[in-house]
Write a sequence for this structure.
């Protein structure tokens, strides 16, 4: 116990340099390994340069880390194929070793706060940006960078030095010659550099969808979206991929959309209250947004000493569940208490 120490934030932000794997194409529920496999598998891999293709990710039942199904090449030979002679399938079922071109793209997500390795799958780019790191009950200084409504707005760290460094690196990378095949590797959620037409600058982006010869992208350091011509996207250097986005999607904490709605007057007042103002933000919890491939944070905001969540309460219309229940009970009495055909919905 005396030989353990706390981990500095700078080390926590760096992705692990190793990751847990298993050979793709061998389902343990459908077979087992011959005892001879262990020594031969070890001798085949140890101290050898390997080429690895990742197919999918699962959560390991015992180790608190993700585990990747992979195909390995060693000295020009596919290890998965070489290991087939040691595999004993149940009922002599044929084991299929799939290839990247035939595998559907899957989004990789993990609930751990530690960044997972940026592994790209076959010929499809599914590397992901890191998630922002928030400390519980710690107030962050931010600006609202893209405001739609109280349940959907983006905040940007009040850190101009970091944003300037990201921008400088992005401009340098954007000047590199385009790899003509790179756009073909992009799918929903893929990171890239994209040229924003309004300022003619390169910015970090994430693909939302492809439309003909253009990509609809989300600029992850600001929160705005745009359509970008296919010729105006570039690959993202590893150094930029490892830096967490400077903006993050938010919603005001304390307002459950399933239990109420906003008055139409809220939109202009909410925008005018936040725009260009220094804000203090506290994160309460995180959820995955159903439409945007990004986490959304339930937050409390302070602006010029006032709690924004409290100021917005006057625009919130909660469902009058008690009144609705009374109406339904009245309807039952008028029907001379006939048997109910269903349950009340709140």
């Amino acid at each position: 116990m005396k030989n353990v120490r706390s981990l500095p934030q700078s080390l926590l932000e760096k992705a692990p340099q190793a990751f847990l794997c298993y050979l793709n194409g061998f389902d343990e529920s459908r077979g087992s390994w011959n005892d001879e496999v262990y020594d031969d598998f070890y001798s085949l891999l140890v101290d050898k340069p390997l080429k690895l293709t990742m197919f999918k990710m699962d959560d390991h039942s015992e180790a608190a880390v993700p585990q990747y199904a992979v195909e390995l090449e060693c000295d020009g030979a596919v290890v998965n194929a070489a290991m087939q002679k040691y595999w004993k399938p149940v009922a002599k079922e044929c084991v299929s070793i799939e290839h990247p071109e035939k595998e559907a793209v899957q989004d990789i997500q993990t609930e751990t706060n530690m960044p997972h390795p940026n592994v790209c799958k076959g010929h499809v780019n599914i590397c992901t940006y890191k998630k922002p790191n928030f400390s519980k009950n710690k107030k962050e200084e931010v600006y609202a960078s893209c405001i739609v409504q109280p349940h959907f707005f983006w905040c940007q760290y009040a850190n101009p030095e970091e944003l300037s460094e990201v921008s400088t690196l992005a401009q340098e990378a954007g000047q590199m010659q385009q790899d003509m095949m790179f756009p073909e590797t992009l799918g929903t959620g893929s990171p890239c550099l994209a040229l924003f037409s309004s300022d003619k600058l390169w910015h970090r982006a994430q693909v939302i969808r492809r439309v003909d010869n253009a990509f609809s992208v989300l600029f992850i350091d600001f929160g705005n979206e745009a359509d970008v011509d296919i010729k105006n996207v570039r690959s993202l250097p590893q150094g930029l991929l490892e830096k967490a986005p400077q903006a993050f999607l938010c919603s005001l904490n304390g307002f459950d959309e399933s239990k109420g709605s906003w008055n139409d007057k809220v939109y202009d007042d909410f925008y005018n209250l936040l725009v260009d103002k220094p804000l203090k933000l506290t994160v309460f919890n995180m959820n995955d947004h159903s439409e945007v491939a990004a986490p959304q944070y339930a937050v409390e905001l302070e602006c010029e000493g006032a709690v924004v969540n409290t100021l917005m309460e006057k625009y919130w219309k909660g469902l009058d569940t008690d009144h609705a229940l009374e109406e339904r009970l009245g309807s039952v009495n008028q029907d001379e208490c006939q048997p109910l055909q269903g349950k009340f919905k709140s």
About this structure: Confidence is low (pLDDT under 50) at residues 92-114, 119-124, 331-346.
